[in-house]
Amino acid sequence: MKKNLLFLLLFVLLAGSTLNAQDAIKFQECNNSSIKVQADSLKQLYARDGFQVVRETSIAMESEYEMPVVAPLDQGSWYQFVFIGDYTSRLYEVRMYDWDEKMVVYQKKMWGDVDGNIISFSYIPKFSEFHMFKPVQQNKQKKKDLCGYVILLKKVRK
Q1: Does residue 83 fall inside a structural domain?
Q2: Are strands 129-138 and 146-155 parallel, antiparallel or unpaired?
């Protein structure tokens, strides 16, 4: 009995130290003045069309790693999602999933595209539920310390 208890205690201690050693995705803000200017311009543009900012944040990213953003969306409301990536990245992607983890939106942009580092799309959810946005960017120059910016806007009824 004591051997089993000792074994269980040892197992719990080892499992706990292993969990702490694993890398975790840590949400951190970043500061990039050119991305901030683009974000401010887009917010003004969408405000003229009747959209109001629901959520926005700058996010520190690493090349080729998705940064999940979860937000509750209301059924029948018109949303606009915007992701602005670091202008030196060569690829930008956003995947959006509903509560059932079904991909409902996928967009990809390349560096040479006209609106290169910006992905923007409209979405009207069929159900009121949480949705997950997963932006990612690929950059050969900088593997770490990439900046991204996420804006979620909602059409305001007047």
Answers
A1: yes
A2: unpaired
